[in-house]
Amino acid sequence: MKADYxxxxxxxxxxxxxxxxxxxxxxKDEEIPxxxxxRMCMKCHTHWAGPVDSVKQYTGxxxxxxxxxxx
Length: 71
Prior knowledge:
The protein is α+β, with helices and mostly antiparallel strands. The chain has one domain. The protein contains one helix and four strands; from the N terminus they run E-E-E-E-H. The chain has one helix at residues 60-69; strands spanning 16-18, 36-41, 47-51, 56-58. Strand 3 and strand 4 (56-58) form a beta hairpin.
């Protein structure tokens, strides 16, 4: 599987942390069972997260709330 997700622009900074789950780390299978995008702008803390085919964008505050509610 080849992921072709491009992070939308969120501010004037291009420093994006890429923490995607796109590689078969614990399996020898060629197919990744549940590939996810997980990215964050290092300036405004906008996040992009979710399955490759339905990535959602979150503001920094929305992401913090999401993490606290799902911890």
